[in-house]
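Severity: low
Component: inverse-folding endpoint
Summary: output formatting inconsistent between runs
Steps to reproduce: submit the following structure tokens with default settings.
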């Protein structure tokens, strides 16, 4: 189960580069200024903190489950804990300003994470398969230097 939790955290990273909407709709005031890009070290530190906090929440919730949970317990855990937690991680990371020149790499991580989240949300049993839906996001995060998000 620990290997499964890490890829889920990576899914949270994939939304990190989602662009924020501008202020060109009716009733909106001035557009919010875009955040200055973070350095890679700052980005990695902030994203890994988001993942570390989220992973700890998942681990704490997992302690309440039996060593060999039923399919129903796995589904409930995925729906109530894992997917919302990882989605929040994804969204929080997507709100960070990626390092200049690394936008595509970060977006790739976020996209892979969102795809994995969507798969787990649709069928929580995929968490138990050898074809981990979060593996790609985890691998991309690790290659980028995101230790906690790849865990």
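Observed output (run 2 of 3):
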């Amino acid at each position: 189960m620990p290997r499964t939790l890490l890829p889920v955290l990576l899914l949270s990273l994939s939304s990190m580069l989602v662009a924020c909407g501008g202020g060109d709709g009716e009733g909106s005031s001035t557009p919010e200024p875009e955040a200055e890009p973070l350095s890679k070290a700052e980005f990695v530190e902030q994203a890994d903190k988001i993942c570390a906090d989220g992973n700890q929440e998942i681990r704490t919730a997992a302690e309440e489950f039996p060593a060999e949970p039923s399919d129903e317990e796995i589904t409930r855990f995925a729906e109530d804990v894992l997917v919302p937690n990882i989605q929040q991680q994804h969204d929080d990371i997507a709100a960070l300003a990626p390092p200049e020149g690394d936008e595509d790499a970060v977006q790739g991580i976020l996209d892979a994470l969102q795809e994995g989240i969507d798969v787990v949300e649709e069928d929580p049993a995929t968490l138990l398969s050898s074809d981990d839906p979060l593996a790609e996001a985890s691998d991309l995060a690790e290659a980028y230097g995101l230790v906690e998000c790849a865990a």
